[in-house]
Amino acid sequence: MGTAGDGKPNGKSIRIPPRSQPPEGFEKILPTLKKFQDKMQTLESKEVNPSRPKHELYWDIHRVDHQKSRYIYSLYFQRKLISQPLYIWLVKHKFVNGELIAKWRKRGYENLCCLQCIGETVCVCRVPKSVRKANEDFRCVKCGCRGCASSD
Ligand SMILES: [Zn+2]
Ligand SMILES: [Zn+2]
Description:
binds zinc ion, disordered N terminus, mainly alpha, BUD31
């Protein structure tokens, strides 16, 4: 701790919930989590370009959030580099989207972009590219997904 500064909160530090000591291994992934957090904050504070539709800003934020969950998913389920208590702690404290990660473990949902796209109406981005009409610029309106079927 104790980085140089004027003592004012800069809003960029990851908030660790009080009285919840992170499990072992958290220190190792903290720098990467911080990078994601910083990226997200930059996007959120970015001046909105009026010529750009507002939902596109959400796409950017969603992309970073997705990458963050993917990072933890890979560390825990694929590379087995973090412990179960740490994974559970990260989900519980919303560092990652546990529900989305649970979907990635299911057949056919390995690349799912977000939970919105499998809501009441299933988004076109779930349709395999081979079935969908070829459209280079396709992006789903909800999250900006370019296609997330497992066969894509
Ligand atoms: Zn999608
Ligand atoms: Zn989506």
